[in-house]
């Protein structure tokens, strides 16, 4: 499918019966409570804000974590489930990865913490953001991403849609930092670049 024949890319609200107002929470099937808390609270630093029986299955526990901005990640866990760090197999409808934002000023500290907790990682420069990829205790890929510029949350979609237009006009295959810089300038968003290390793009890497 060519760029011209693809779906319209825009930050404008589509003509649909209704519009969502944001992400309330995402729920995953976890293994056991201890390992889940150790990874998401003790390593990633997400407060455990609610713990109760699963309303649909009282024999399992429902854990609620605040991902850092009030948006919630929850898990259904049972103590008799063993964790397995083997990579998950992807199929239609499965979760490929979860991405959480991190403070760019803590980037080196975060890499050291992952190493100390025994979690390997890959580091990639994704053009408009910079990411570390690791796996949780159940083999789910976790991306820890930081923007190259401080983009206001309420303008993120607008910025990315502008990046897309500039990228296509340039004939570039992927969005790059220069496209982001031009988009911010065009939209009048004043933001200083973040200091981040050089890293490969990871294009084509599973």
Structure explained in plain terms:
The radius of gyration is 19 Å and the shape is globular. The strands form two sheets. Strands 1-4-3-2 form a four-stranded mixed β-sheet. The chain has two domains: 25-85 and 95-147, 2,3-Dihydroxybiphenyl 1,2-Dioxygenase, domain 1; 153-187. The protein has 206 residues and is of the alpha/beta class. The chain has four helices and eight strands; from the N terminus they run E-H-E-E-E-E-H-E-E-E-H-H. It comes from Halosimplex pelagicum.
Number of helices: 4
Mean of all residue-level pLDDT scores: 92
Instruction: Provide the succession of SSEs.
Output: EHEEEEHEEEHH
Beta-strand content bin = 15-25%
* CATH homologous superfamily identity of the largest domain: 2,3-Dihydroxybiphenyl 1,2-Dioxygenase, domain 1
* Structural class by sheet pairing and helices: alpha/beta
Write the layout of secondary structure elements.
Layout: E1 25-29, H1 33-43, E2 48-54, E3 57-66, E4 72-77, E5 97-101, H2 107-116, E6 122-125, E7 129-135, E8 141-147, H3 156-170, H4 177-187
Parallel strand pairs: 1-4, 5-8
Antiparallel strand pairs: 2-3, 3-4, 6-7, 7-8
Features:
206 residues, alpha/beta, 2,3-Dihydroxybiphenyl 1,2-Dioxygenase, domain 1, 2 domains, 4-stranded mixed β-sheet, 4 helices, 8 strands, 23% helix, 25% strand, globular
């Amino acid at each position: 499918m060519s760029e011209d024949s693809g779906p319209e890319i825009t930050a404008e609200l589509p003509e649909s019966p209704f519009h969502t107002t944001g992400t309330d929470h995402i729920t995953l099937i976890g293994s056991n409570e201890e390992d889940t808390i150790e990874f998401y609270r003790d390593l990633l630093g997400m407060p455990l804000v609610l713990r109760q029986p699963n309303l649909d299955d009282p024999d399992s526990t429902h854990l609620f974590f605040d991902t850092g901005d009030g948006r919630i990640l929850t898990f259904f866990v049972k103590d008799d489930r063993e964790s397995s760090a083997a990579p998950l197999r992807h199929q239609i409808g499965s979760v490929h990865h979860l991405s959480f934002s991190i403070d760019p000023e803590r980037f080196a500290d975060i890499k050291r913490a992952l190493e100390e907790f025994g979690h390997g990682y890959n580091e990639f420069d994704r053009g408009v953001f910079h990411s570390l990829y690791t796996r949780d205790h159940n083999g789910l890929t976790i991306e820890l991403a930081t923007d190259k510029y401080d983009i206001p949350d309420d303008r993120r979609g607008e910025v990315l849609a502008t990046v897309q237009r500039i990228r296509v006009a340039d004939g570039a295959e992927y969005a790059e930092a220069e496209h982001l810089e031009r988009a911010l300038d065009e939209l009048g968003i004043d933001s200083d670049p973040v200091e981040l290390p050089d890293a490969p793009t990871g294009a084509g890497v599973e």
